[in-house]
Design brief:
The protein is an alpha+beta fold. Helices cover about 30% and strands about 35% of the residues. It has one domain (about 10-125): Nuclear Transport Factor 2, Chain: A.
């Protein structure tokens, strides 16, 4: 489903920031409040990387899948950075300095309508390694 109302860059950035804060703190209610009631989680591991095997529908189930995935599927050494993904703000996560996943959000009416997570290493191969911090 294509969003009827295009989110402004500021709205996208704010929702992404709020999403990161909710997931980092484990605040389930905040995450659910960011999601539309019919939100969908899409995950693509390509059979080569950890991923949620099926689409997840509904704000409560999507939030639970996100928190469950963070505990079970994501490496403990993960480092995340906000980056431009296909011209929109998204999140690139790294493990051992290499790209582990890319997350993007689809926004509709001020809420997160869909979450797309790609962990398929073939689809991440073009991404640069994690930049070294400046000295």
């Amino acid at each position: 489903m294509r969003p009827r109302f295009r989110a402004t860059p500021e709205q996208r950035q704010q929702l992404l920031t709020d999403f990161l804060e909710a997931t980092a703190t484990g605040y389930m209610e905040k995450l659910i409040a960011l999601l539309s009631s019919d939100a969908v989680l899409h995950s693509d591991g390509g059979g080569k990387a950890p991923a949620v095997p099926n689409l997840v529908h509904g704000a409560d189930k999507v939030a639970r899948a996100i928190f469950g995935g963070l505990q079970k599927l994501v490496p403990a050494d993960r480092t995340s950075r906000i980056a431009q993904i296909n011209g929109e703000p998204g999140i690139v996560s790294y493990s051992q300095g290499r790209p582990f996943s890319v997350l993007t959000l689809e926004i509709n009416r001020g809420r997160i309508q869909a979450i797309y997570i790609v962990t398929n290493p073939e689809k991440l191969a073009h991404l640069e390694p994690l930049p070294e911090p400046p000295c």
